Amino acid sequence: MSEPTPSPDLPLVAFDLIGVLAEPSWREIDRAPDRERWHRLRVGAIEEEAFWDPASAAAYRACLRLRSDRLALVSRLRARGHRIALATNFARAWLAVIRERLGGSGLVDHWLCSAELGVAKPDPGFWAHLRALAPAVVVVDDQTANIAAARAAGLTAVWALPGADLEARLLAAIGAGGPQA
Amino acid sequence: MRGPVDYSPLLTELGLTGADAPHVLAAAAGSHARLAELRRALADAVPAGCAAFALGSLGRHESSVLSDLDLAVVYRRGTLDPADAHRAREAVAAVLRARGLDVADKTFHSAVALDDLLGDIGGRDDCNDHLTYRALLLTEGAWLANAADAAAIVEQVFGAYTAGAITRGRYLTSLSNDLHRYYRTICVDYRFKVENAGKHWAIRYFKLRHSRKLWHLANLAVFCRAALLPDEARDGWLAEHLPRPPLLRVADALRPLGGLPLCAGLVTAYDAFLAALADADTRRALDLLAYDAREDSPVFRRLRAGAERFDEAATAVVGHLWQRSPDHLVRYGLL
């Protein structure tokens, strides 16, 4: 099957990673999570070696998995011609794991990682990077604070809440071009 | 819950300190540390299409080192062969037992297929075990292995109720009724376990009067609160709040209803219960206690007095819900 050609006329769909496309959060395998250190790691102010010990680093890589149901959704969106972005608050070192796991799937056109950008969601500076990629962007995120911030920045945002039909809500948002609850 | 459950903001709101609820705090911190450690140990334990969960006190972040572990392994038939799922369940149980955990084999003795849990809700083949899995996955299911499939599975369980086009009800009563049904089932199950199956009565009795009751109260409270939300916000709010520990669920519901101070009595009474369950001598005394000798037992009398304090606090919460959300409480919680 030939690779679909993304259309610049269609909205770019930007997926959050943890909580939307992959699990778990680092906090779920850390016995005593240090949020202050995380805030430095996620904007690239420190590297993973300064964040936690090698055993934790290895354990997180072993636990980190992509959600097959959500990858199937991404695949369908690409087949419709949408460009796909990954827009995540994540460590540089962990992003490499995700890139490797996605391999040559070609599912992701743009990778926006807070540690590489030096700014994290919900900071307006993060959304500015997304806005620069396309005139219309639809953000999919599981954090209500990020949804509110994305909308405040003029983007369309879809909350990936558990149990709801994410695909239906996303298609409605793409079709209407307006915000979805 | 992504990280450790943080009760500190609630305690501050209630005018309490850590000294008023040391066992609630210790159980939350200990449960998170236990979950983190087990997740590391089980990182490669189950294949794709299958997930392992801790239900019960560990899933509620209320466990102590003395708690047993209700292990649930759920898989997708079609993605994974049943025999492979059962082998995965055995492998997970072996890892947990090797770490000294008491893995109960009762309801959760084998891997269960997700479509069996969801294919006949309320129907002839919808057995108590399936009801148990659904209710506990939604309200106290903490993943142990394969977080990605675990999240998708829980979403699908919740989605089974929200997608019921005719039966879901405006207030998602198909789900609230199932949770009520589970609570009544375990209350009657106590009778069977003790009278017919020869199980010991005392710890079960006090769990019914504390943790089971709090679980039920928390469900009543969140559905009363959710009923007052705009229709389009209700499912999301329920999905977000149902997995939270019961004390926080009650607080989440009462805060916007002006009843938050009523949580103080619940927290302190529940703390005394968790203190008892975390104490080996108390557990031993309850395990050895004959029903006819209960009035002679200081442990029994102390825990019963605590249960009465807990009842008073719970009654005050119900009284507040009666004042602030009477239509929902009566029509959907009681009648």
UniProtKB/TrEMBL annotation, chain A:
Molecular function terms, GO-annotated: hydrolase activity
Keyword hit for Magnesium: no
SUPFAM superfamilies xrefs: HAD-like
Gene3D superfamilies xref list: HAD superfamily/HAD-like (3.40.50.1000)
Keywords, alphabetical: Hydrolase
One Pfam family hit: Hydrolase
Name recorded for this polypeptide: HAD-IA family hydrolase
Organism (species): Nannocystis punicea
TrEMBL record, chain B:
InterPro entries linked to this entry: GlnD_Uridyltrans_N, NT_sf
Residues of the Protein-PII uridylyltransferase N-terminal domain: 33-101
Protein name: DUF294 nucleotidyltransferase-like domain-containing protein
Species of provenance: Nannocystis punicea
Organismal lineage: Bacteria, Pseudomonadati, Myxococcota, Polyangia, Nannocystales
